[in-house]
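Open question from group meeting: does this chain pack into something compact, or does most of it stay loose? Before anyone orders reagents, we agreed to write out a predicted structure and look at it together. Recording both the input and the output here so the notebook holds the full record.
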Amino acid sequence: MRFLVMKSSLRAFSLLELLIVIAIIAILTSLAIPAFNSIGKSQNLGAAIRNLEEAMQNARKKAVTSNRIVEFRIRKTVDGTSYNAYDTVAFNEFGTQPKPVSRVSTLPTGFVFGKNKSSILQELPERTSTDVPVVYHSFRFMPDGSTDLSETKKWNLTILHESALTKPDSPNVASASISPTTGDVTTYRP
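Structure tokens returned:
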């Protein structure tokens, strides 16, 4: 009797095929990384604008509930090149002697307040504080909930990624609009 020996039809991948698959995976990964970075920037921007809106609303509430003037300050960085922090101070019944209401909040790394896109930074004068040597722009919430901002202008404060300073059509931009008469804050993202 004869036995037939069947050849096995199992076949493995060659080294060249494996290298091609690895190269394709590397190319796809390198294309996906910028998309993930953009998602991270977008999430940080969303959190930053929500935190800014909440801080402004809290400053307004503090002014109304304490029957005091509360100042919202947009602060320059330590090196003085841009604005990336904010805080609030309340004044006594005579409108003097500022007292901190909140801690200084800083925007996420890489984000700044856009001076050219923020009417508050363009129109309001730079000030320096006697309590802390820092340069800032500010506006005040009054005890009735209004602000000391002129009613004839539209007031906004825009947050953007530093990369958007050189790219005017960057999607990483968000803005908070402040109503001078009511002190209401509305945020939007283009």
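Observations to bring back to the group:
The helical segments are 15-66, 119-123.
The domain at 58-188 is CATH 3.55.40.10 (minor pseudopilin epsh fold).
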